[in-house]
Amino acid sequence: MESWNIRAIINAQSMGLFDWIWSLENPETGQVRAWAASSATGEVHALTLDENQTPQTQSTLWIGTTEAPYPFADMVTLHHAGQDWTLMSSGTTGAVSLARETGSGRLQMEWRLEDPQGHPLTLSQMVVIPTSGTPLLLATPASAAAKLRLYRLDAGLQVATLQDVEKDTPKAILAGVSDLIRLSIGTQEFVVSSSSSEDGLSSFVVTETDLELRDTLGPKDGLWINGLEDITALSVGGQWFIAGVSAASNTLSAIRLNPMGAMFVTDIALDDQTTRFAGAMALDSFEAAGRSFIVTGGTDAGLSLFELLPGGQLYHHQSLAQSADWDIGHILSLTAVVIGDELQVLMAGADGSGVAQLVLPLGNLGDLVQGSGQSDTLSGAGQDDLLMGLWGDDQIAGNAGDDTLIAGPGQDTLTGGAGADVFVFTADGQTDRITDFQPGLDRVNLDDWGMVYDISALTLTSTSWGGRIIWRNERIDLYLENGARVDIDMWEPDDFLF
Predict the structure, then answer these.
(1) What pLDDT does residue 14 have?
(2) Rounded to whole angstroms, how far apart are CA atoms 42 and 63?
(3) How many alpha carbons fall within 13 Å on the CB side of residue 104?
């Protein structure tokens, strides 16, 4: 996989200090818009996004002023009757303002959402569910009340009629809700709520008129986290997952949601010296080449990129530390958008005005090829492929490209081929083999081996045919591409990922 880089800080001198960034793809035109908002000034900038280009500011909407700021509690987008809308809840009054896109992403304030009696709604976190009729709106109240409310919006998006209320109980996590997301699984609509104060999630099935609690997941259920600030939904291998970041525990979690709404922890990644998501407050997900990825960042002066593998395992591809080119401080908000053959990540930081744009080329991103659980032969297609062996004695060949080859349980043989490849090994007590290692170019990932944090913990040997990497009952037989013996002095810390 290629590396990402900073393209620009957009209008840093003329923009404010932003804490909200969001994007929307028009389902009819495929055009992607982005917006950046500042609670300090109440300004909302509309940005146009194009491949290989720096985003351009098309218009600015002022909701507040520096004397009377507009702290945003939440923002959600809605496509209804051929029109794009943004709903914005106030962090002070809870009032929900509706803005209509009038062209080139420009937002025009229209009205505030009311109940049937003409009273302004006061809400905090929100999520919209499109239906065959008018949309549904799920939201938490602006007050401290731990509830989730279901509303039906009218055709004009001016009046919201209450349909159902779900209260916080020992079986539901609705206190301190930090985010709400929706998922469609089969014919059912689900909403998942995250709580930063109760360290967990609750799932609900949503009908036209009702909310029904399906499951709750927290530390007592194996979700060993502290806080839960932001969540996103993504699909892998025909299954749905929730990914969430926790600032206090410095963790990224993956949770599977089955068609009944039950949730299961599949992986928890802890920030370490190779990653940049400590104190994470924001994340987003995207799909490219049929593969699902997560971007996240927080107080760790950088950004991390993970891939969610079939089964729900988190795989860390790369992290990028902030530099003088994009020293924006703690990352408060981000959005990840695939445009053409590149990923664009737009970020707002606590210490820098404007919007930072990172780009990751995706033109060489290849397929994800998974084994069957038998003794398989897996081959890459000449791009940056990910080949994932399962049980069995697999033969895995990356061929050309910067490939990731994952050896599952069993005696596996890995051949990277041309390119900078990463060989990933499972702790299984079996002997695996690399047939063509290129020192200084390829890398060996031993993260799954457990408490191995440094090259000094390994036993590295030289043989007549190559060399060995040994730790406890784990062993890798390693052959160099040129067929020479392995000189143990050739090893450098950068040859390994722990």
Answers:
(1) 63
(2) 5
(3) 7
DSSP 186: T
Joined tokens for residue 497: 């990922």
Query: For the CA atoms of the chain, what is the radius of gyration?
Result: 24
Q: How far is CA 239 from CA 88, 201, 310, in A?
A: 31, 18, 8
Give the closest residue to 302 by CA, choosing from 287, 315, 282, 209: 282
pLDDT at 13: 61
Q: Which residue ranges in the chain fall short of pLDDT 50? A: none
pLDDT of residue 278: 98
Q: 5-363 with 366-497: one CATH topology?
A: no
Residue 37 near residue 46 (C-beta atoms within 8 A): no
pLDDT for res 424: 98
Domain locations in the chain as residue ranges: 5-363, 366-497
Phi first, then psi, for residue 420 (nearest 5°) are -90, 100
Collapsing DSSP states into helix, strand and coil, what is residue 448?
helix
CATH number given to 5-363: 2.130.10.10
63 φ/ψ sector (left φ>0, alpha ψ -120 to 50, else beta): alpha
Stated pTM of the model: 0.95
* Domain 366-497 in this protein, CATH class: mainly beta
Which of 49, 56, 48 has the alpha carbon at shortest distance from 105? 48
Q: Which two tokens stand for residue 270?
A: 């802890």
Nearest to 30 by CA among 79, 85, 76: 79
Long-range contacts of the stretch 79-87 (C-beta < 8 A, 24+) = 79/24, 79/26, 79/27, 79/28, 79/130, 80/130, 80/134, 80/135, 80/157, 81/155, 82/28, 84/24, 84/26, 84/33, 85/157, 86/22, 86/35, 87/113, 87/126, 87/128, 87/137
